[in-house]
């Protein structure tokens, strides 16, 4: 069943903004002529919440968190980008393993399960999770869902 991804995402952005640190601004933008999509809303919401929670946690005050959605002919693409601590290159290949935490998290709390859940839930919708990260610069997560 189709739902309005833009309205859904605007609501998530608003909810997550409440959880953000001082002057962390969550900016949401959609690209595409179409705004409805057929995905599992609960699974998708859990994925996005996990990614934005990480962006908040692993970046500092006075920064932007960019959250985007795109619907094109063949895919629905979700991205969450921060300007935070980044992920050390040597840790990147382990990132989706359960209980794995990168070596630069310091005293930031976490169990290392969020991203493992994101990959599982995205996978249930045939989605692929990917990321690009540069230490001390930031991280971009992408989930790409094929549309039939
Ligand atoms: P939780 O289970 O509460 O989500 P967590 O945040 O530690 O705990 P994951 O969300 O699975 O676990 O993330 C795994 C690890 O990946 C984190 O511990 C952190 O080292 C790294 N990480 C994830 N997202 C980011 C990000 N946006 N910026 C920097 N590091 C990140
Ligand atoms: Mg997490």
Automatic annotation (TrEMBL):
UniProt function note: Putative oxygen sensor; modulates the activity of FixJ, a transcriptional activator of nitrogen fixation fixK gene. FixL probably acts as a kinase that phosphorylates FixJ.
Domain of life per record: Bacteria
Organism: Mucilaginibacter lappiensis
Protein name as annotated: Sensor protein FixL
Domain Histidine kinase: 1-148
